[in-house]
Amino acid sequence: MEWKNIYRGMMIGTSDIVPGVSGGTIAVLLGIYDRLIAAISGFFSREWKKHFGFLFPLGIGAVLAVFLLSHLIEWLIEFHFQATMFFFLGLIGGILPYLLRDINYKETFRAPHYAILVIAGLFIASTAFIGAREEIIIESYTLSSALVLFGSGFVASMAMILPGISGSFVLLLLGTYEPVLGAVTSFNIPMIATVAIGILLGLVMCSKAITYLLKKMPVFTYAFIIGIVAGSMVVIFPGIEPNFFLLLTSILTFIVGFYVAVTLGKVEHS
């Protein structure tokens, strides 16, 4: 068991609670993205034992973060939204140099790769201008609500595993963010289980597709990933309120986030 993955899982789980921030982006920062994709893809195969020791502690950490930190994240977003989002902006800004270095872009990138990067970045950035759907009210657990929750988990999971695309942001667009977060904070087991099954199925299917692309077209895939990570900064940018103290606090949290990303990148990529 790679028990070190518990803290990594907690970081990934925490990021997935925040609308606009992707757990896949944090996996890139931690230097485990390729292995995470391969482990999820290979877990439901004859070689599942080889991946269990990696995934199990990671899953424990992610679940712990969701249940232990969901109230804190709710509080931070409600009362310190700008400063919190600037922290995550700093994190993402600190990740981009490692992505570019990993693929050795100066040697491997050609015009088509830069084009893919720009197109992917513009596509993700454009989602910032899509209004969130009106919240779906789920008062009781019925067949129809179960289908909505399962579908939301399935779609969101495919976003969770891609750097730069936030699963929680997808839930916002679908109108199910509040019901899902409410189920977690109230420990509603049937609703949580339904979303979890959808997430699990989506993760497996998406991971197999990404594994294939990383093997067959690694440079194009990296260009696409870098583009969506960069574009996600537009999505989570909270705007700037005309308050000097808040602006100063936000700049400081951005610097802290950038420093954390650079420090973790040095440790995890060494």
Secondary-structure map with pairings?
Blueprint: H1 5-17, H2 23-29, H3 33-43, H4 48-79, H5 81-102, H6 105-108, H7 111-126, H8 143-160, H9 167-174, H10 177-185, H11 189-216, H12 218-236, H13 244-269
Helix pairs in contact: 1-2, 1-4, 2-5, 3-4, 3-11, 4-5, 5-12, 5-13, 7-12, 8-9, 8-11, 11-12
Protein architecture, described:
The chain is mostly helical and 270 residues long. It has one domain. Helix content is 79%, strand content 0%. The protein is built from 13 helices and no strands. Helix 4 packs antiparallel against helix 5, helix 5 packs parallel to helix 13 and helix 8 packs parallel to helix 11. The radius of gyration is 18 Å and the shape is globular. The two termini are 21 Å apart. The relative contact order is 0.18. The model has no long low-confidence stretch (mean pLDDT 87).
Counting H and I runs of at least 4 residues, what is the number of helices?
13
Strand tally is: 0
| Distance between the amino and carboxyl termini | 21 Å
Q: What value does the average pLDDT take?
A: 87
- Assess the beta-strand content as a share of residues: under 5%
List the domain count as a whole number: 1
Helix content: over 70%
Order of helices and strands: HHHHHHHHHHHHH
Tell me, what's the shape? globular
Low-confidence segments, ≥5 residues, pLDDT <50?
none
- Largest sheet, if any? none
- What is the gyration radius calculated from CA atoms? 18 Å
Counting helices, strands and paired strands, the structural category is mainly alpha
